Amino acid sequence: MPARLRELVPWLLAVALLAAVGRAFWLPGEPPADFTFINGTEPKSLDPQLITGQPEGRIAAALFDRIVRWHPDTLEVMPALAERWEVSEDQKQYVFHLRDAVWSDGEPLDAPAIVAAWQRFLDPATAAEYSYQLWPVRGARAYGVGLVAAGEMIEVELDEQDPQRPFARGPLVRGQASWVGSIANDGSRQASDAAALFGGSDDEAVLVEVDGVLYASPEHPLVADGTATAARAALPDFATRVGISARDQRTLVVELAEPTPYFLHVCGFYPLAPVPIHVIEKHGSPNWTKSENIVCSGPYRLYSRRLRDRVRMVRNETSYRADEVSLEVVDALAIDSGATALAMFETAAVDWATNLPPFAAKLFIERDDPTLRLQSELSIGFYRLNTTRPPLNDPRVRQALSQALDRSTIVKAVYGPGQPPSLSFVPEGMETATGYAPVQTAAEDAEEARKLLAAAGYPGGEGFPKITITFNADEGHQMMAELIQAQWKSRLGIDVELASMEWGAFLDAQSRLDYWVARAGWTADYVDPNTFLDMFVTDGANNQTGFSSPDYDRLIAEASRTPAGDARDAVFAEAETILMEELPVLPLFMRVSKNLVAPWVTSFPENSLDIHPIEAIQVDAQRQSEARQARRLRGAAP
Fold this sequence. Notes:
The protein is an alpha+beta fold. It has 20 helices and 26 strands. The strands form 6 sheets. It has a 10-stranded mixed sheet with strand order 16-17-18-1-19-24-20-23-21-22. A 5-stranded mixed beta barrel has the order 7-8-11-12-13.
C-alpha cells in the first residue's frame, strides 16, 4: 500500500469514529444486542411486498417467513411454512402442505392467509415492483396489470368502508362484465378493453357494467348524477381466474399457466413472504409496519425502529423455528458511510459490516485479512440509461457511451483486484450455476465510439446536451462516476454532471424515470438467467429505463414456456443479444461480495446471492464480550 494511503487510514478511522462512537451499544433503557451489523442505508420500508433493496431484504427475510426457504450455503429449496409439496407431472400444479404456523400475535398463518397476502401482492393498487414474480401463475398477470373485458368474470370493489376494518377492501360484487368502456358527453358508449383501475373524473375514465348496474370511480360525473354506482376498482375475478387457492386451511394450491423451472425457488424470495392482512386492514399501509403495530412470522420479530439509526429485532417465540435461533437480540444499523462502518468494525462496535470504503477493501485484500470474506456473486454492477430522453433514445449514442469505457481501468481503480469487469448483463457465474453462457456487448473501442456519436449527430461531442450521472451516497459509487465522467469527456468530448442522492429519493427518481444515467446493481433473486433478463420487458416494474422491444418481450415470454435446457438457453441468448445491442443498460462489473466478519462469529453462511440469514449466524459470546470490554477499556465507549 502506498505510504500516503497508509498515513490516511488512521485519520479516516478517527474521523469516522467520532460519528460512530457508542451507536452500536446505546439504546436508552435497553441492553446491548447479542449481534450488531451495519445494514447500509436506512430501509425504505419493512413491508416485504414493497421493497427491492438488499438493506430492506435482510430485515424482511428475518421478520417474515416464506412458504419455502433456501439452504444458507447451497441455496437449495427447503421446507418452511410448507412442510412438503407435490408437483404435477406436467409441472403446472403445486400443492403445498402447510405446517401449523401462527403470526406473532397468535393468529393462524394458514392457506387462506397466504391467498389473501398474495392477492394483495398482485393487486395493482399495492404497486409491488416484484409482483411479476407471480405472473407465471394462471391469470396472475391479467389481475396484476388490471385489464378486464366484456364477457369475463370480474370483481368490482364498492366504495364503502367497514368501520371495524377501516383499511380493508370494500365489499365485492362478482359477475360477468356485460360491457366495458367509456361514455361520451352526448351519452354515446365506446366499448373497449380497459385498465381495471378507474381512471378519474374525465370522460375517458373506465366504466364497467355487471348485471345491468354501471360502475365508475367515485369522482366520475355519472356517479354524481346517479347513473353509475361508485366503485374503487374493477379487476378480473381472483377466485375464479387466478390460480391461487386454499383447498383447506392447511393446503395451498398454485396452478401455473406454463411450466416454470424456477417457480419453486422464487417462492423462497422475500417479496413473496405472506403479510398479515388482518393487521393491514386495521392499521393501513405503511402504519402496519410500525413497531407498535407490526405482526411477524419469521424467526425474528420487530422490537423497535429508530429512523436513521437502527432496527432492533428479537427472537420470535411464536415461530416454529424459534429453537433454531441462537441470537436473542439483533441490531441492524442504518449507516451509509463505508469509513464509519470500517471504524466501528475495527473497534469491535459491530460484528458484521456489509459495506466498506474502496481503499479499505484493497488494503484488506492485499494483506489477506481473514476478517474480509470475499465471495463471487450472481450479481452485476451497471448503469441505467433513460431511453425516453434524447439523445439517449438513440441506440448509437448508448453504444458510443458503452464502447468509450475502459471498464478494466475503472473497476481496478475503484475496487482493486478481484472485481472483474463485465460486458454482459447476465454475470458469467451463471454459466457455472446453470449452463447458460451470457452474451457480451461490443468491447472497448474509443475510435468506434466517436464514429457512432458522430453518426448520431454529435461529432466530437458537439451539441451534445449536458447529462447527469446520479448515484446513491457511497464512496465507491462516487469514484466510479468520476472516472466515467472523465472518460466520456476525454474520449467523446461530452460534459457530464454528477449528483449524489439519498437512497429513498434515488430509488424514487429511477422509478419515475427522472434521471439521465443512474448507477444500479442487481443480484439474482433466484439461480436462473430469467432473474436478470425479464427485468427489461416493456413496462416491467424493475425496467426503469423506458426500454421497449416487442421482439425482446416475445423472447422472454417464449423462454417462460420452454423447459430448462439448451433450447431455453438459446432463447435467452437471443434476448440478451437484443439487450446488449440496444443497451438500455451499460454492464460494468461482476460484483464480489465483501463482508467484514468479526473473528468471534463462528457461523456465517456464504453463497452466490450474498444472502446471510441472521437466524443461521452464531457467535462465541465469550470472545465477543472480551473484545467489547477491551474496546471500553481503550476509552472508545461513551
